[in-house]
Amino acid sequence: MEVIIQPDSQQASWLAARLIKKIIQEKPNAVLGLATGNTPLQLYKFLIKMHREEGLDFSQVRTFNLDEYVGLSPDHPASFHHYMWTNLFQHINIKPENVHIPDGLASDIPGYCQKYEEEIKAAGGIDIQILGLGTNGHIGFNEPSSSLSSRTRIKTLTDQTRKNNAVFFGGEENVPYHAITMGIGTILEARICLLMAFGRKKARAIAMAVEGPVTAMVPASALQLHPKAIILLDREAASELKNVDYYHWVYEHKPDWQKF
Ligand code: GLP
After folding, report:
1. What is the CATH number of the domain that holds 35?
2. In the predicted model, what is the mean pLDDT of the chain?
3. What pLDDT shows up at residue 217?
């Protein structure tokens, strides 16, 4: 794992945007795995800026989102479809047919999830998967106790996750109980996993995921098994890590060819 600690979320997001830009420049039809939530918002703003000001070209880029609530139509304001179009896709030159977000209204959910997996394979796999982190250590909507080899499927949200997301639904009573999410096994197949976490409230989950044991009780800890996992943090999210000096040391001595 490569743990990169930046002074604040802006600088961390800028680094993430630079990495994605590099990947798209090297492979114009790169496959991006995308996430929602507050964490990647600044990253998406930087990508839009790079598109507008530096001509970053998304015309061949393909995307697969991690998850979507079950029962929400794409135009529901709290749906991840709505989030992705509002915060990124409508501002860049991506082709709608190259965008994939799980369909919360799918009638045959197991069949649909199987198809989603096949579409990822048919695209040649995900080049970089962006991940946020739940305060309980979840990635996507893989809640604690999710199988570390799980594939795309329906999951039941925890009470905590529903509370954390209540603000987007105008009250907890409106938050769906279920979501479709890529599995942890699906996520681990991405060539690069980039987990971003900002703020004090993520510090505990980060410490458990990065320096604790690999356990289904902390789904993000599965990234310890990934050959190229980057954990990108601000100072607050890194505040419960023990090995901070070493992570800074590694970053300062990164060979030029590894920099982004
Ligand atoms: C939701 C999403 C996750 C996201 C997490 C953290 O549960 N399913 O993909 O990482 O929230 O959200 P935030 O970035 O807003 O803290």
Report:
1. 3.40.50.1360
2. 97
3. 98
| pLDDT tens figures, 170-226 | 999 999 999 999 999 999 999 999 999 999 999 999 999 999 999 999 999 999 999
Beta carbons within 8 Å of 142's beta carbon, 6+ residues apart: 150, 155, 181, 183, 184, 187, 219
Distance CA 69, CA 46 (A): 26
Residue 212: phi, psi to the nearest 5? -95, 180
Q: Which domain holds residue 157?
A: 2-258
Q: Identify which of 158, 141, 159 has the alpha carbon closest to the alpha carbon of residue 150.
A: 141
Pocket of ligand 1 (CB under 6 A): 35-39, 66-67, 132-134, 140-141, 161
Give the distance (Å) from ligand 1 centre to CA of residue 175: 14
Atom of ligand 1 nearest to the CA of 198: 16
Number of domains present in the structure of the chain: 1
Cα 77 to ligand 1 centre (Å): 16
CB contact at 8 A, 12 and 233: yes
Atom index in ligand 1 nearest the CA of residue 161 equals 7
Residue identified by tokens 């979320």 is 9
DSSP of 78-92: TSHHHHHHHHTGGGT
| Sign of the torsion angle spanned by Cα atoms 210, 213, 217, 221 | positive
Q: Give the Cβ contact number of residue 200 at 10 Å.
A: 12
User: What whole-number distance in Å separates Cα of residue 85 and Cα of residue 218?
Assistant: 30
Ligand 1 centroid to Cα of residue 255, in Å, is 32
Catalytic residue set: 67, 136, 138, 143
Token digits of residue 183? 């599995």
